[in-house]
Write a structure and sequence with these properties.
About 70% of the residues lie in helices and about 0% in strands. The protein is an all-alpha fold and about 300 residues long.
Length: about 300
């Protein structure tokens, strides 16, 4: 049976979202060298918030149901608030490459949550693919050389794991909400809540005397391309594929992150890591739902 057009679109949007998210690790790593994390996070959320104010007319009608505020609030608290806090702590202690690698655990966390909450049945091939991808992620992390920018990799990777727990809860909440709210609205709500959340911490941190053009561009990239583009693409994809299948694409993030970190930050990409990336891609392919079980 040929792949459905909606599935083809979802594969493209998910892959592009993962590429953008992978690049965000490098952008954050660059900005944290000059700006306080609170300033970076507030700046990116503020930029996204302003953009979405001009997009209100395209957000469509909101089919609010009683009690939705709890899910909407949980979604926004998980991401961007708690997620970004843990990710910032992670990138202050570990390399961008290793932080990207830890994201491979998200599909497994989401799959377990989807099974318990959404009753999404998991094919044995999906579990096998996840297992292979996680093994590849572990090899990728172990094979990485130590770096001066990673003073406490174990602690940093633990913080990134906590960020993935938040991301798993976020994914499940969005999957439940996209049937009544447009992906554009959900992405906008995240930005508005995030801007308010990080405003207080950002106000109490003094700005550096000079801010480089590189940091300014990086914050703009995070606010516009990442906060708007990546989340919008991911939320849209959740309207086309199951939460478990969408989260499986997270395994592409470590591959993209290691490549970009090598090109931009000079983080070393050795032969073993290259093999590990191939293992992750194989795991991603196997974790896809068999075609006869594909959903619209």
């Amino acid at each position: 049976m040929p792949t459905k057009p909606s599935s083809n679109i979802a594969i493209f949007t998910l892959t592009l979202a993962m590429l953008i998210w992978a690049s965000s690790f490098i952008a954050l790593k660059i900005t944290f060298q000059e700006l306080h994390p609170a300033q970076v996070l507030f700046g990116r959320m503020l930029l996204a918030s302003v953009f979405f104010v001009f997009m209100l007319r395209w957000m469509g009608r909101l089919n609010y149901q009683r009690g939705d505020w709890k899910l909407l609030l949980m979604m926004a608290i998980m991401e961007p608030c708690l997620y970004f806090i843990f990710e910032s702590l992670a990138l202050q202690n570990t390399t961008a490459s290793q932080a990207g690698v830890v994201t491979s655990l998200l599909p497994l966390l989401t799959a377990i949550g989807a099974y318990l909450v959404l009753d999404e049945r998991l094919h044995i091939r999906t579990w096998l693919g996840f297992a292979i991808a996680i093994v590849g992620a572990i090899i990728l992390s172990v094979a990485g050389d130590s770096s001066e920018t990673a003073p406490n990799p174990m602690l940093g990777n633990f913080y990134e794991l906590l960020a993935m727990v938040c991301a798993a809860v976020y994914t499940l909440a969005v999957k439940h909400l996209v049937s009544r709210y447009s992906p554009l609205f959900l992405t906008a709500l995240q930005s508005w809540v995030g801007a308010i959340f990080f405003l207080g911490p950002a106000m109490y941190v003094p700005l550096p005397e000079t801010i480089s053009t590189t940091s300014v561009v990086a914050v703009m990239y995070l606010g516009i391309i990442v906060s708007i583009g990546a989340y919008g693409l991911y939320n849209y994809s959740l309207t086309r594929v199951p939460a478990t299948q969408a989260s499986a694409f997270i395994n592409l993030i470590p591959v993209f992150t290691v490549i970009i970190a090598f090109l931009v930050l000079g983080e070393y990409f050795n032969h073993t890591q290259f093999i590990a990336c191939s293992v992750i891609i194989i795991g991603l392919y196997l974790s896809r739902t068999p075609k006869k079980q594909d959903l619209n």
